[in-house]
Asparagine--tRNA ligase related protein (Thermoplasma acidophilum), 329 residues
Amino acid sequence: MKVNKIHKSNLHLCFMESGEINTLIEEISEHLEKPELYHALKVQSSIRSITSEFLKERGFIEVPPVIISVLTDPLNHPVFDPTIDYYGYKYSLTKSMIFHKHLLTKHFDRIFTFSPNIRLEEEDKVKTGRHLAEFTQLDLEMKGASRDEVMSLGEDMIIDLFKKIKRSNEEDLKFFGRDLRIPSKPFKRIAYLDAYKQYGEDFEHILSSEMKEPFWIIDIPLEKREFYDREDPSRPGILVDMDLIYPEGFGEALSGGEREYELSRIIDRIHRKGQTEEQFKWYIEFAKEGLMPSAGFGIGIERLTRFICGLERIEDAHPFPKIPGHLSL
Ligand code: AMP
Ligand code: MG
């Protein structure tokens, strides 16, 4: 989809002129008619069924998503943050279900959800081709798991998915001229600081463009991530977490890691991040009751569709893409 020409630099409610409405309607109708969208959505539909089957076979329970909550992911990058006042309480739209996932591991060993996330990204994100303001994460968490276990599960899930998609969606991949390569396990691992030393600031993009198979960036420095990823007790400042990066320049696929679960460490991390206990009072109350060690990850479904189909832009993986900073239906 072409980036919408109707652009409002602020996000205030505006009165639309009839010309603007017509342009938007034309663009959406054009988008919905594109064969690319049809084939991409067929692939996406298979992604949902194959991955959920894979997880259920391994003892995961699917839980429904949370759409509004008094608690959501603070994220480590700026986004607009609207809230809803409801009977005197302030609710946010879910940016990720990280805290809800972690709370659930007290009662369930393995859970997953297809979680719609609203992240009103700044308009410059439109340049990446892989950011939407509304997308879905396949978000999972495992009680008592280590980072290695969750990485191994992620590798198995990707390999299983690619193999099955090649069979179930042969025609769609043929339409895109996509020869999907099945990666071999274990995926390559590169420590964040090593990648940074070798390639500089832009390492993710450079490595993603050079690689032929998905690979991991591990041991991400504390200041680069939110407070809930676990700091390695033997290596202060380094987190026990990871990103999976797609090859061929498609960039980040998923983020995950082990979680902080001890109250004193959670409070210390909130302070080190310059955030307030007030902001996370609900989570802290649960932490006082005791949280479980856990690990998990979240993988963006539209990005996964984009990679499997080899789409240039993520918009073609959604019938009604919310384009950062632009008028969308
Ligand atoms: P995060 O934990 O913030 O890295 O988000 C988890 C995953 O969700 C990412 O690795 C992406 O696959 C996906 N994701 C994050 N932000 C966006 C976005 N704005 N548009 C589409 N997918 C996203
Ligand atoms: Mg990430």
